[in-house]
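Changelog-adjacent note: as of this version, every example in the card shows the full chain rather than a window. The one below runs 73 residues end to end.
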Amino acid sequence: MAKDYWTTKHPDGWQVKGAGNSRATSIHSTQAEAWAETRSRAIETKGEAYLTGRNGQIRERNTYGYDPEKTKG
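Full-length structure tokens:
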């Protein structure tokens, strides 16, 4: 089952959080460490990984599961 994971700011550093979870999956001291964990978990579940900056806006997004072909439209 695909699950999306987010890297977001946390009072103790940066957190990895699964979509729909109320608590952090893990907390890291640097954004790079948290982003590596987020990508790893998204790859395992064939989901998406989202990286947010300090301002809360999405900086990067990667899809590791089913990514439909682009269609004309």
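Structural remarks: The chain has a mean pLDDT of 91.
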